[in-house]
Amino acid sequence: MAEKWVLMVTAQTPTNIAVIKYWGKRDENLILPINDSISVTLDPQHLCTTTSVAVSPTFTHDRMWLNGKEISLSGGRYQNCLRELRARASDVEDEEKGIKITKKDWEKLHLHIASYNNFPTAAGLASSAAGFACLVFSLAKLMNVKEDHSKLSAIARQGSGSACRSLYGGFVKWIMGKEENGSDSIAVQLADEKHWDDLVIIIAVVSSRQKETSSTSGMRETVETSMLIEHRAKEVVPRRIIQMEKAIKDLDFPSFARLTCSDSNQFHAVCLDTSPPIFYMNDTSHRIISCVEKWNRFEGTPQVAYTFDAGPNAVLIARNRKAAALLLQRLLFYFPPQSDTDLNSYVIGDKSILQDAG
Ligand code: ADP
Ligand code: DP6
Ligand code: CO
Questions:
Q1: CA of 215 to the centre of ligand 1 (A)
Q2: Which pTM was predicted?
Q3: Ligand 1 atom 2 nearest Cα
Q4: Which residues contact 320 (CB under 8 A, 6 or more apart)?
Q5: For ligand 2, is residue 160 a contact (CB within 6 Å)?
Q6: Which 8-state DSSP code applies to residue 211?
Q7: Measured from the CB, is residue 47 less than 6 Å from ligand 1?
């Protein structure tokens, strides 16, 4: 091997927003959930992670920078992903640069990883999903890992549960699985990105501040202390998963909206039922819910669904472009950006085209 080379790969991965939420693990190390979940993957042009990974014989240890700041890779999640990928690395040859890396070399070579999220990190817009999906995808490319999306998705799951759904576009289901080794806890695509392209997604960034309770520790505390979580995971979610799959297949917006809003509200209810209680939404989030609920009731049939992940930011899904335009008008009227208490910015898009609303 020539000694001064650097080999680099860059990849981009979108985030995904759950409409039936994952909250709670049965295995912390393998990241196995206590219920199935369903999400929509957003267009990669917006709300995405870009990760560059490099290898060189001059690197002395594995290092990672997130949004320009060095972070530690010592956590189990990063180590689990790196170990799984190194075990599957294959020979890489770049004749032009005179580089030849054998399968065995990957055990000793070190990596440098630089990742950027073009949206708030750790603020409830699923940065861990886009982040770990992108980490695994870019490293798999660099290391010539010959595995399909399903296997890469299972590796990304060990970085962050929600990341397993970001390897697919469109509507995606993460099946919780039964096996102790996690072999059947996998993501599957329910419908591709062309399905239901009337839907328009508007993200209202209420706060880009980092949340106080990470999703990982929040869900651990919920599982340890909430009495409602078992009812949710065992009784409510299994029924909702069946209904949601049908609503997506039939393009049934009223059912889709009812299920999405109820599931978001129940997720935040189990957060409140946690001891000490976890508050992810704030007053502005609550006002957005009221605004949408009132409007949907006034119209007689839902025009918009809302969902909030583990943070105060609203993900609003309008049934079509007309409803999206009306929604944006309302939001701008009630929540003018940059006023004291209100929203910072809006991002509009759908599953195929996204534009910055400024
Ligand atoms: P979010 O709601 O944004 O997903 P989480 O609490 O689930 O918040 O996860 C945030 C954590 O995910 C960050 O502290 C970091 O450890 C990890 N993360 C975020 N972005 C990336 C990225 N691009 N690459 C790797 N890890 C990331
Ligand atoms: C509310 O996947 O971020 O966004 O697996 O511990 O990394 P870890 O948690 P994470 O949890 C996501 C929770 C959620 C709902 C969802 O995405 O399904
Ligand atoms: Co997350």
A1: 9
A2: 0.94
A3: 124
A4: 198, 199, 200
A5: yes
A6: P
A7: no
